[in-house]
Write a structure and sequence with these properties.
By secondary structure, this protein is of the alpha/beta class. The chain folds into two domains: 4-122, no CATH class; 141-363, 3-Layer(aba) Sandwich (Rossmann fold). The protein has ten helices and 17 strands. It has helices spanning 164-177, 194-202, 223-238, 256-262, 265-268, 281-293, 309-318, 326-329, 334-337, 347-363; strands at 4-6, 17-19, 33-40, 46-48, 54-56, 62-67, 70-71, 76-79, 88-92, 96-103, 114-122, 151-157, 182-186, 206-209, 244-248, 273-277, 300-302. The chain has a six-stranded parallel β-sheet, with helices on both faces. Helix 1 (164-177) packs parallel to helix 2 (194-202) and helix 6 (281-293) runs parallel beside helix 7. The relative contact order is 0.13.
Length: 364
């Protein structure tokens, strides 16, 4: 077992045995820990080790990973198979494994790194280990209530790589420079430590994401489980008594989990401000329209489209919203520039949600 290279998502896995006898019979679920042999190197020539640094891998190496699904329009779409497969793949460098269903054209030359399932990591009683909530206590969203002690800023994007994490990071820096206590949580995505490290180095006082609760990925989770992840992370963030909590949701507005959360009035009742990042002008304009359809108004526009002055000009000609550059986001004056996120016609939805929450409280 000393020769097994352990991935980041399996950091909390300590004592275990490798059961090869159930390799073909166990039906894996999200977070199940398995041992794979590297067959051929594709896109991933390394995994993130338990400390977050690269562990380079080679054919014949044994790696410990956790099963998960992945949505990444610029990389891989992959799923946990329903039954044993001849071949598995690395879906994410942080330790997410499954089977690729589709990939971006850029990935097609190398394809995914190919794996062979050797067995599952089990405890002393033969139960397959699962990374979810392995060393943390889940908080039920049903018990969570909005707090007046801090404001919540939601960082969304129109697509993958639109600039949401950079927006969150520079916003954290600006708030920190304004003397505010800032927490950052990322509720959805695929395990990889880079985002939270970047936001922390920009000045956030607390950073934590779904993977630190043991999720290799949140793709294809049910809505209740997504909300419990949010509740758990927000509860932990609140312990530092923040002035602001920045919440990032991965990928784009049309992505399954993002869309579910944005249509949930109870989730939206926690949000005070909303930053929308986009990679181009059309994405910014159509993203605003999609948010308006959901009854939401961004506090401001951010993202990679600002690299091109022509794109900024196009957005300004169509949109009456502030456009926040990185220098503006990281300036202390950003505190005065944040607008509320909700449109007037959202009040009815929010009031209905508040009444339902009150009814739930009274019935408990």
């Amino acid at each position: 077992m000393d020769t097994i290279k352990k991935s980041l998502i399996c950091k909390k896995v300590k004592a275990y045995q490798v059961d090869e006898s159930i390799a073909k019979t166990h039906r894996p679920k999200v977070g199940d820990v398995a041992i794979f042999e590297v067959v051929a190197i594709g896109k991933h020539n390394a995994i993130q080790g338990t400390g977050g640094s690269n562990k380079y891998i080679f054919p014949g190496d044994l790696v410990m990973m956790a099963f998960g699904n992945r949505y990444a329009s610029a990389q891989f779409e992959g799923y946990i198979p329903d039954n044993w497969q001849e071949e598995y793949h690395i879906l994410g460098k942080g330790g997410c494994a499954g089977v690729v269903a589709s990939m971006h054209m850029r990935m097609s030359l190398r394809g995914p790194t190919r794996l062979k399932l050797k067995g599952y990591a089990t405890d002393s009683e033969g139960r397959v280990l699962n990374t979810r909530y392995m060393d943390s206590e889940k908080v039920s969203f049903a018990t969570l209530r909005p707090s007046a002690n801090y404001r919540v800023i939601l960082s969304l994007g129109t697509s993958m790589d639109s600039g949401k994490t950079t927006t969150a990071a520079f916003l954290a820096r600006g708030l920190m420079k304004a003397g505010k206590h800032v927490a950052y949580i990322k509720t959805t995505g695929t395990v990889f430590s880079k985002d939270r490290a970047y936001v922390r180095d920009c000045g956030a006082h607390f950073v934590k994401d779904f993977s630190q609760l043991g999720y290799p990925s949140t793709y294809m989770l049910e809505e209740d489980e997504l909300l419990d992840i949010f509740a758990t992370l927000l509860t932990e963030a609140a312990q530092i008594q923040p002035d602001y909590v920045i919440v990032e949701i991965a990928d784009g507005l049309l992505q399954r989990e993002t869309s579910m959360l944005l249509q949930n009035p109870h989730f939206l009742s926690f949000i005070d401000h909303l930053m929308l990042s986009s990679g181009d002008s059309m994405g910014a304009i159509s993203g605003i329209e999609e948010l308006h359809r959901l009854g939401l108004q961004p506090s401001g526009l951010c993202g990679a489209f600002q690299a091109a002055p022509l794109l900024v000009k196009e957005v300004r000609s169509r949109v009456d919203l502030p456009i926040f550059s990185l220098s503006v986001l990281s300036d202390p004056s950003i505190v005065q520039k944040l607008r509320p996120a909700h449109l007037t016609h959202m009040n009815g939805v929010m009031n209905a949600a508040a009444k339902e929450l009150t009814a739930d409280c009274n019935s408990q």
